[in-house]
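Our platform keeps sequence and structure together, in a single record for each protein. Such a record has a labelled line for the sequence and another for the backbone structure tokens. Nothing more is needed to write down the fold, since each code stands for a local backbone conformation. For reference, a complete record is included directly beneath this paragraph:
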Amino acid sequence: MLYNNTNNNSNGNENSTEILTKTNTQTPTTTPACCQSRGSPGWNNEIHYSCTNSSSFNSSTPQNCCNSCVANPNCLGWGFSKNNTQCFQCNGNVDNYCSSAKIDPSTIGGEGSEGGTIRCSDGSKC
């Protein structure tokens, strides 16, 4: 709050204090939902190389594969192979996985493959 004080003048008028308020308006920023599209949290199109324990299953889309990883508390990262619609989930030791080198998912799943990191500090806040 800001105060605007008025002093007595020579005519004997009373002092007055006016309270001024300042309103800050900020436009809220929205964070994209996890697994919404490439570039959104969880879908950074990089996976870590060290995946000591993985599982795979059929998945129709990369979004479904990513969302499945987010829902699995043991899943650290995911990859979707466009060639055979397989979803690969990396489980294991988070420190080993997150400290390993990053690779493009197409290196493993073929051209057009997608992927992301879910539970590493360089991945997302899913």
Summary: The chain has a mean pLDDT of 80.
